[in-house]
Design brief:
Rossmann fold; alpha/beta; single chain; 7-stranded mixed β-sheet; globular
Length: about 190
C-alpha cells in the first residue's frame, strides 16, 4: 500500500477571507493544486480535498471548511477515515510570532497562540505532526489581533508573501519526498 500524506492549509472559507493573513495556509494548498493541476472540488468531512501521487506516495491536499477555530474537527474526521499516521499530516498556517514571510518548519510542538492549531491538537489528542509556519508579522500596538489576522496584506508585503507561499509549498513536498529533517535543513 502507498504511503499517505496530508498537506493541510489552514484558513477561513469564503470570498471575504481570501488573501488575508490568516488564510496563508489556504494559499499554499491552492498554489500546490495549481502547480500540479489538482482540483480541490470534493467536499468530504468538512474539507475541500484533492489527491495526487508523487514518487509513489499518495498525497491529499486539504482545506478545512469549518472556519479556523474548528479546523481540528475536519482533520480528525479525515485522519480517522484515511487511517493516516499523524506524523504524515503536514499543517501549514500563519504565525504572528515570525517576521513577515519567514518560514519555520518543526516536526511537532505546541499551538502557541494559534486557535486553529489548538483545535487540531485538541481533536487529534497529539501534537506530534509536522508543521510549516509562515510569518505574518505582529500587529501594531493599536491593532486588535483578530482584525490584524483577518486583514489583507499590504501592497509592500505581497512580493514577500508570494515568495513564502512558493517556499512553503516546496518545503511540504520536500517533507514528503525526503523527510522532515531534510526540509528543516533546507528551508529553516
Amino acid at each position: 500500500m502507498k504511503e499517505l500524506f496530508f498537506i493541510v492549509g489552514l484558513g477561513n472559507p469564503g470570498k471575504e477571507y481570501e488573501n488575508t493573513r490568516h488564510n496563508i495556509g489556504f494559499e499554499v494548498v491552492d498554489f500546490i493544486s495549481n502547480q500540479l493541476n489538482i482540483n480541490l472540488l470534493k467536499l468530504k468531512f468538512k474539507a475541500l480535498i484533492g489527491d495526487l501521487e508523487i514518487e509513489g506516495k499518495k498525497i491529499v491536499l486539504v482545506k478545512p471548511q469549518t472556519f479556523m477555530n474548528l479546523s481540528g474537527e475536519s482533520i480528525k474526521l479525515l485522519a480517522e477515515w484515511y487511517k493516516i499516521s499523524l506524523k504524515n499530516i503536514i499543517i501549514i498556517y500563519d504565525d504572528i510570532d515570525l517576521e513577515i514571510g519567514k518560514i519555520k518548519i518543526k516536526p511537532k510542538g505546541s499551538s502557541g497562540t494559534h486557535n486553529g492549531m489548538k483545535s487540531i491538537i485538541y481533536n487529534l489528542e497529539c501534537d506530534e505532526f509536522p508543521r510549516i509556519r509562515i510569518g505574518i508579522g505582529k500587529p501594531l500596538k493599536k491593532w486588535d489581533l483578530a482584525h490584524y489576522v483577518l486583514a489583507k496584506f499590504h501592497e509592500t508585503e505581497k512580493n514577500i508573501i508570494n515568495e513564502s507561499v512558493i517556499t512553503a509549498s516546496d518545503a511540504a513536498i520536500e517533507i514528503i519526498k525526503s523527510g522532515i529533517d531534510s526540509a528543516m535543513n533546507k528551508y529553516n
